[in-house]
Design brief:
single chain; about 80 residues; mainly alpha; 3 helices; elongated
């Protein structure tokens, strides 16, 4: 994980944590829906052209999205321990 991706993941974690901590669960769920919509287009495409560079780019984009979504979900779980 590079530094830019790590900072984005920390920002997403803080955003998700604050939404759940301040009882904005509907916004948190909408954020999850947005991540799911991005995931539909992020995966590697199966084309007949066999373009290896495009496949690697799509694979890297999917891995980035997986890191971001993991931090987002972890922020919601972590906030459950702090909400009274």
């Amino acid at each position: 994980m590079n530094k830019k991706l790590f900072l984005i993941c920390i920002g997403v974690f803080v955003l998700g944590f604050m939404m759940m901590y301040y009882n904005l669960a509907i916004l948190y769920i909408l954020g999850m829906a947005v991540i799911i919509l991005f995931a539909f287009g992020a995966g590697p495409r199966l084309d007949d052209d066999g373009n290896e560079a495009r496949y690697k780019k799509d694979q890297a984009r999917l891995i980035t999205l997986m890191w971001i979504s993991a931090f987002y979900i972890l922020s919601g779980i972590a906030s459950l321990f702090f909400v009274s």
